[in-house]
Fold each of these.
Amino acid sequence: MSEINDTRSIPEVLSAVASDLANLVRKEGELVRTEVSEKISDAGKAATTMSIGAALLLGGFGCLMAALVLGLSEFMHPFWAALLVGVVAGLIGFTLVKGAANKVKAKGLAPERATRQIQKDAQLVKGQVQ
């Protein structure tokens, strides 16, 4: 077994450990902030793209609905055709939005890498203390 020759006193060692622990906590906080910022930035970019796509889809959907109303107008009064198409589209839309809203969770924004690193650091500190 090799001996460790450390000339520091116990208070100096404890001070160094406390300083290292404070530095570790600070670095972990920076990691959490950085990771959350990255995820928010990615979500913002995705939201912009989704908004543009949604606007284009909405325009196309409106044209298809108008075409459906015109097609149904051959078989019934245009008012009733428009009302029927509007009610059916509204019910389908409401069902889709309600189902999607139930699946949306904030879990995707959790800083996973930082959480794993903090758990590893906690295990390391526990191992050092024992």
Amino acid sequence: MASRTLGFCCVVLAATVSMAAAAQSDGSSLAPANPPRVKLKFDQPPPMVIDKPMATGSTVVLDMNVGDVKILPSPNNHVRLEIDPKAFYDAETVAGWVHRFEVAANRATIDLEMPKNNHGHSSPEVTLYVPANGDLKLSLGVGDLHITGIRGDKDLHVGVGDLTVALSDDAEYGHVVLSTHIGDVNDPLNPGGQHGFLGKDEDFNGKGHYHLRATVGVGDLTLVPHDPS
């Protein structure tokens, strides 16, 4: 009886080895194939928006620690803040970046504390729409500041980064003070009027009535000439 059992086991083992060899020879495998990886796709969270009415000719004050900012003219004399987090933060977290957003009389005061590390994603994008005619007082610690289409006095500062002001009219400015500690000043209003070695500075009077004071710690300061087209 034991010899017959042993013989049966040998036959089963031989059949199993034969099947495995046949599977290998035709390229198949007894092991199940790995299923294809499915890349999960999540919806991009919508930007956070704060919008308040504001009188034309008012002053907008912005203080922000880090990130890139665009300042654009509002179509309806509102001050409108849009923050695109570029990462999957919940709404409460994004709202917490806005420490202050107040509009009183003829002044808007905005204080933003943005995240310094966006966990491998692109930095949040901040866009601020303001009345096209009004004054600006803006301070940015680290990042790029770009201003387009705003007529009025401007007091601007960037610690580390580039500052660009697109002029609405080349003749709209009177007293202009521009300086960088380390970086270039590119100014079509006063070509060749810059002084300095590592940094540049200039101070001159134009024919307009708006005042422009802009400073950069480390980075470039550029005035983009008016394009009538």
Amino acid sequence: MSVIEAQGVEHAVAIGAVSLMPTIRSYHQAKAMIDALDYSEPLSFEVEKLSQKRSLPQNNKSHVWYNQVDKQLCLPIGTTRCECKLYFGIPMLRAEDQDFAARYDGLIKNRFTKEEKLELMRWFPVTSLMTKSQKSRYLESIQHYYAEQMGIVLD
């Protein structure tokens, strides 16, 4: 199955029996997903209530920082975002979410090169899966790394 897009919603990405599911935030997103399903075989669903998601200021801060690092290091825009997601976000999610770890390890970990994983991070959900607490720790890790290793102060 490939990525199905309907009304701006990216639906399940499945390879074999492992899939990555989106967060559905509205009736219209849920309906678009249900309308796009193939009903020729029985289906099963898992529904879980999400913990408090990251805040808009956290999200804005990360994007400001990504651009700041890209500019200071003369990198193509988007490079730092992909690197941070892969090197800070993925390890955090793998360590704290067994389901994510199983899916990431089964689909991606040993299947792609580092360069391919970085390209994958352009669309692969990482920070959108984080809680506020995780996003705070993610931002702290980024801030510490760039200050200590690269001499870039991120505020």
Amino acid sequence: MGVAVTKERFATMKEFPEFMKHPTNRIATSSQSTPGVEGYVFDGADGSQMAFWTCRETTSSAPHVHEFDEYMTVVEGCYTLIVGEERIPIRAGEEYFIPRGVLHGGEVVAGTRTIHAFGGHRADRVVKSSNPLE
């Protein structure tokens, strides 16, 4: 028996699905560059990470730099990436690549949701896994 595909299943979502927000994947506040965000992280076998962030308030991301590349896409809202003096608004459906070593920060509008891929370890979890293989 298949699942019926209806228009309602493809309605605009205001939150990431619950399965993506398991408490063991919650990003620790100390690993956040932006105050007032809720984030969850998933690890790749090669040490890369994917992070899903929901910004609950309009705020700024502190300037920071990574030793690895970063790819980001905005799912909902707007994140204005700041690289040097350049301000780059990234809106829903748009994406951006930030090479390793580039100092960047930004400004985010409340309600914005973003997905990031990092070429290395970017975020620590609130709850450490009990898996002895990690």
